[in-house]
Design a protein that fits this description.
The longest helix has 16 residues, at 207-222. The N and C termini lie far apart (56 Å). The chain has two domains: 10-143, 3-Layer(aba) Sandwich (Rossmann fold); 156-222, Arc Repressor Mutant, subunit A (Orthogonal Bundle), CATH 1.10.10.10. The protein has helices at residues 19-29, 44-54, 70-80, 94-104, 116-127, 135-147, 162-172, 177-184, 188-201, 207-222; strands at residues 10-15, 35-41, 58-61, 64-65, 68-69, 85-90, 108-111. Helix 4 links the parallel strand 6 (85-90) and strand 7 (108-111). By secondary structure, the protein is an alpha/beta fold.
């Protein structure tokens, strides 16, 4: 009887700015018969460079990468490698980011606080070419698809654009408009315009109130 050929392992790229998180994920995947870690990246820029060189089957990415926007990274990875499957593994509340990540090109979203088995299920679901979100998010998205916003108001955060989320996050981490402009490669005038839109959409009266809201929101997301 001939030996059965070994099944090819899915090659996984881990993207997180915390080495301890990458190490934990690598240990989680170590020894799995169908998965192998092919590379790790600590930043969005490094992830794009490594993805181009290694051509992974799956990228597991965080939303926040040292202030960089993981949503933009997802879009850039899909442009670079359209067939790449992407799973977001993040501490950020799925109710704010899961649908946003899927629209950007991710195939799944799971929170870091989930149990090991749930994270492994998410990884294998996305590797198989399917979509993975929690039951709560799945029901919410189905309700929105069938009924729109009937029965309740959308969260103010849900009304923000991806770029406005970036600006709000950086404001909450103490960055000035000038620093935000440099980090996001925008003009300071454009950042100030985003700040104005944030105040309008969040119904905030001034700059101080916006910064306080941003700080409290980021603190809640990362606690």
């Amino acid at each position: 009887m001939k030996d059965q050929p070994k099944k090819k392992k899915s090659r996984v790229l881990l993207v997180d700015d915390y080495a301890v998180v990458r190490d934990g994920l690598a240990q989680l995947l170590q020894g799995e018969p169908d998965l192998t870690v092919c590379a790790e990246a600590a930043s969005a820029e490094q992830a794009l460079d490594i993805a181009e060189k290694t051509r992974p089957d799956l990228a597991v990415v965080d939303i926040s990468l040292g202030g960089a926007n993981g949503i933009e990274l997802i879009k850039n990875l899909k442009t670079l490698q359209p067939g790449l499957r992407i799973l977001v593994l993040s501490m950020h509340d799925e109710s704010h980011f899961a649908e946003r990540a899927l629209r950007a090109g991710a195939s799944g979203y799971v929170m870091k606080r989930e149990a090991r088995d749930r994270i492994m299920k998410a990884i294998r679901t996305v590797c198989a070419g399917n979509i993975y979100v929690s039951e709560r998010i799945e029901k919410s998205m189905l309700h929105q698809y069938l009924h729109g916003n009937a029965g309740g108001e959308r969260s103010p955060i849900a009304r923000l654009s991806d770029r406005e989320i970036e600006v709000l996050t950086l404001l909450g981490r103490g960055s000035s408009s000038k620093e935000i402009a440099e980090r996001l490669h925008l003009s300071q005038k454009t950042v100030d315009s985003h700040r104005t839109h944030l105040k309008e959409k969040l119904n905030l009266s001034g700059a101080t109130e916006l910064v306080r809201f941003a700080f409290e929101w980021v603190s809640a997301q990362e606690s």
